[in-house]
Model the fold of this input.
Amino acid sequence: MTDDRVQRLLTQLAARTGVAPVPLLELSDRSGRADVRQLGDVAVISYPARRAATQPDAEIAAILAHELHHIAAHDLTPPAKNRRDVIRLIVPSQLATAGLAVAVVAASSVWLLLPLLLAVSIVLGLNVGLALMRRRDLREHGLDLPRVELAADLGAARIVGAGVMARALQRPIWSSTSERLSAKLIAAARFAYPSHPPLSTRVAALSAYDGSDPREFARTF
Amino acid sequence: MRTCSVAAESAGTLTLNGTGERWEGELVKTPTDRHVRLSLLSALGLAVIGLATLAAAGYWLPALALIVAAGSGVAVLTWRSRSLRRALEPVTVDVRDPAALTLDRSPSP
Done:
């Protein structure tokens, strides 16, 4: 599926933001949300075709500018580093909480509750690991993931305007029921370190944005 | 116009069709995202087993209600994963701007 408008806007915005080479554009409806991924040295921006069909150019540009900001700011974590985080931080935390659950059950001899406590310990351990990741991210980069997203919103707002960026974020997006439910479950499960800030926070940050350095503003907002 | 395909979600390969050029790499975020999804599925699966155990032990009414809730979660996540896998068949990407393919690296063999 192709949309000349999206490709044209992406090429223009990449030139304006100095992102080279122009990222590859993938138009598909596997998700209702746009995202950017790194494939080797190639950045690939995925844009939902169905969403593009109903959006004005300015709002498409806003979302593309957000993704381009991620590329320009080197926000894309190498997969190997992500995998190391999982192996070094999350899995050990989950093993520790699972061990604690087994110890509690063994001490109380209520073995009937073991599967339930293990289920709780997996989610708790996940969040302990994510909290460690968040602390590490703040220490090493000064920004956690939600603030990285805020900074990308603000960086895009510098190009397209804060009002347009806010409208683009607030426009209802198409997504399947399973995608919405799955996203809600996953967001609830990783409560210690969400990947995105709430929409209300993003809009509030855009309203308050004074045009200063996006990372600095996001850090202090 | 040259066309390329994004072939997979995790260990992805980018192939420029008809040119023989190929870039291999992995897509970002997937290890953590995948682990979060897997953890949630495991937790929900264990919850279902635990609640079934409770039901078998006689606490059947609250267990049944919770089994339905946890089972729905498992079903949604599994269904979503399957639909994602189906959607991750090679996707054609049209690249209108040849400059987009001027990449500052040598192609992988």
Q: What stands out?
A: The radius of gyration of chain B is 22 Å. Chain B touches chain A through 55 residues (CB under 8 Å). The CA atoms of residues 45 and 74 of chain B lie 7 Å apart. The mean pLDDT of chain B is 59.
